[in-house]
Specification:
The chain has 201 residues and is of the alpha/beta class. It contains 8 helices and 9 strands. Homotrimer.
Length: 201
């Protein structure tokens, strides 16, 4: 089962990256991003790509320009996640054969992203979009559009987001915080997977 949960490992360092990735994969989370404002993110991503094989989709978050997209494509990354909707970044991502999840908050941004070729929409920040906001936007989006709630979405409100039309989630600090032990990542991941499976079956 491929769960629509993107693990956001903001702040992770290269020595931690592979162990954290393996722990997440074992827990059932196979979409993993390292935000580019983490320490040495390209080194972490390269190590994870090499170690993951076909067990996970490894990518980058907080991708703001096409130069970063090119560099990530050369490393073998498979997914680009951004906090904003930049058509140039989306187009470069798709040209490089990677998945594109730009950040959006308004209908205008949603349609701009989709026209540029985005694979799905990162509804960000979720705490501002809210499930009610997503439900309203969902009414006008093309059928089949993938929407991920990010920032303010977690096990306690997965059901509310699903009812509003969320397909999945980006989970950051509920999964990983700087300096956390592997055992704690395992515990947090198990809780999130259990809650997701209960709601999404």
């Amino acid at each position: 089962m491929t769960r629509n949960i993107i693990a956001i490992l903001r702040g992770i360092t290269p020595p931690e990256a592979v162990d954290a990735m393996n722990t997440l994969i074992d827990a059932g989370i196979t979409l993993i991003e390292v935000p580019l404002n983490s320490p040495d993110p390209f080194d972490s991503i390269a190590a994870m790509v090499q170690a993951a094989g076909d067990r996970a989709v490894i990518g980058a978050g907080t991708v703001l320009d096409t130069d970063a997209v090119t560099q990530l494509g050369n490393l073998g990354a498979q997914m680009i996640v951004s906090p904003d909707c930049n058509p140039d970044v989306i187009a470069a991502t798709k040209a490089a054969g990677m998945l594109s999840y730009p950040g959006v908050m308004t209908p205008t941004e949603c349609f701009t992203a989709l026209r540029a070729g985005a694979d799905g929409l990162k509804m960000f920040p979720g705490s501002l979009v809210t499930p009610a906001g997503l439900k309203a936007i969902r009414a006008v989006l093309p059928e089949g559009t993938k929407c991920f709630a990010v920032g303010g979405a977690g096990p306690d409100n997965f059901a509310d987001w699903k009812a509003a039309g969320a397909d999945g989630f980006g989970i950051g600090t509920a999964l990983y915080t700087t300096g956390i032990q592997i055992s704690e990542i395992k515990t947090r991941a198990a809780r999130i997977v259990a809650a997701y499976d209960e709601i999404y079956g």
